[in-house]
Structures are given as structure tokens and as C-alpha cells.
Amino acid sequence: MEKSQILDRLRQYTEDLYRKPDNDNSMEPIVASKEEREPDILLDEVKDAILLFKNNKAATGEDQIQAELIKEAGDLGAHVIHKLRNTIWRTMKWPEQWTQAIFVLLPKLVISKKARIIGP
Length: 120
Prior knowledge:
Elements: H1 3-18, H2 43-52, H3 67-72, H4 74-91
Helix pairs in contact: 2-4
């Protein structure tokens, strides 16, 4: 398969993930009614999530903000993230930069059937 065919297939696959069900070909987001929406995200949930961030990892986002910086922001940082996330949750409008993604295709690791584990 040629590179252009692989990229076309990946684009199609990704678009299909976000397409509405029932053969609706529009790319408009699916919006839940107020009755269907879940409750707001709790501040404690945000704080717990921040604590789970792993240190010493490369920042992968476009802004290059590392986990240590978010952790160092303490309660004020948690409150800012909490407010931002709940605004997005309620309005269902994502910041434009968050709607873009870069896919990195990794080659499949092939292990020989003849490989064996050598141990003590």
C-alpha cells in the first residue's frame, strides 16, 4: 500500500469516528439535551487528576506545558482548570486549538517466532 493510500485510509477512519450515527454524513457535533447531560466536573476530580500526572515526561501539547508546572500552580491552577473544563462541559464548545490533532503512525513491532527468553 502506498503512502498516499495509507494517509487517505487514516483520514477516512478518523472522520468516521466523529461522524453522527445513522448514516448522517454531516460533521456537526452531537449535542445532548440538558436532561441528558451529566453533572458538572467536581473540583476534587480535577485535583485528583492533576495528582495523577506523571513527572519528567515531555510535554506533547502545542503549548508545551509540563505536568510539573500544572502541579506547581496548586489550588489556583486547579480552580482555573476546573472553571475552564466546566465551561466547555456546559457549552459543549471546545477551544479551536483542541480540535486539531497530530497522528503519529508507529510501525508494528514484529517478534520472531523463534525468539526465546533467556533468563537465569
